[in-house]
Amino acid sequence: LYSQTEVQVKNRESRLAGLVEKLRQDGHRITPQRLAILKLFAEDESHPSVEHVYQRVRLDYPTTSLATVYKTVLLLKEKGEILELGFAGASSRYDLKRPGPHPHLICVECHRIVDLDIGTFDDLPQSLAREYGYQIVNHRVDFYGVCPECQTRASK
Ligand SMILES: [Zn+2]
Ligand SMILES: [Zn+2]
Distance from the CA of 84 to the center of ligand 2, in angstroms? Predict the structure, then answer.
């Protein structure tokens, strides 16, 4: 039996390996820099911004430009391999682990974003399609609140 963390690590690794394979098959060159960028997005649970990944990739590849990170994200978006969460007046945040639409919990204090695993949402698009006659092509569900860490900080 694998622990929850081991399963998560395995999932991340196979997601990254599958993605690299797919990009190579489509004729994209995977430079060490680009691989590092993909790895950071795949391993980061925090729904990082482009700037956040840029700061981290520069620790290992100091010559990386912000444009390189943007271009990689653009490519992933074109291929439907990354979910972009746009926010008015703030940087977009990204989820490479789960590129399909899924609900999120967002802290209004520290802007942490976590995936919300509630199975009931999976059937909602289909039942809405039935009820309203719409072809549902996308959805976005965000819950805003104050995370436990920020609540603790505020009460001190
Ligand atoms: Zn918070
Ligand atoms: Zn997510």
Answer: 9
